[in-house]
Design goal:
183 residues; Double Stranded RNA Binding Domain; 2 domains; five-stranded antiparallel beta sheet; 4 helices; 8 strands; globular
Length: 183
């Protein structure tokens, strides 16, 4: 794939993804909190043009590696404003220990090239890189003992994603995806 083709592909993806916001209305701004690392995330409550109401969290990347920034708003107004925004309460504590789940995933995948990796935004996960392809695995953000696997390329395009995997399914899916994307 040429650089021009990659640019066109990325532009098309961004048009489809961000185009969902055309005609939408921001109904509320709140601050979301990450209970594990203490990061604050801008959250916009939005009503889409079809009437569906959603929350948009602004991260620095698609993995949620820290809060993001929207360029173009009036910074001077923000500096003058002293009102406190509403704070969203932290998510409930999971019934299963996230760190124990992460260590379990590391143990399961270490013989298959997976190793503990810090994403840069406070999120720990299991990762493996082969050329331009990145494989990641982490516990699901639920209170169940399940995991998710994601495969992305250097452009950030998601090539594969699946969650809700038990330990055996995690290993099988990881091995299958490594085999599929490394040939």
């Amino acid at each position: 794939m040429t650089q021009e083709d990659r640019i066109k592909q990325q532009q098309a993806w961004m048009g489809r993804y961000y185009g969902q916001l055309e005609g939408a209305t921001i109904t509320e701004f709140i601050i979301g909190m990450d209970p594990e690392f203490g990061d604050m995330f801008p959250v916009l409550k939005v009503k889409l043009k079809d009437g569906k109401e959603i929350e948009i969290t602004i991260y620095q990347d698609e993995e949620g590696n820290g809060p993001g920034f929207i360029h173009g708003l009036d910074l001077a107004q923000a500096a003058q404003q002293q009102t406190e925004p509403k704070s969203q309460p932290p998510a409930g504590e999971p019934t299963l220990d996230h760190d124990e789940q992460l260590k379990k995933a590391e143990e399961l995948l270490k013989d298959h090239g997976g190793e503990m990796w810090h994403s840069g935004g406070g999120i720990m996960l299991i990762a493996r890189h082969i050329g331009e392809i990145r494989f990641t695995a982490a516990p699901d953000e639920t209170a169940t003992p399940t995991f998710g696997v994601e495969v992305t390329n250097d452009d950030g395009e998601v090539l594969f994603f699946k969650n809700g995997l038990d330990a055996d399914q995690l290993v099988t899916e990881w091995k299958d995806q490594v085999k599929k994307h490394s040939t």
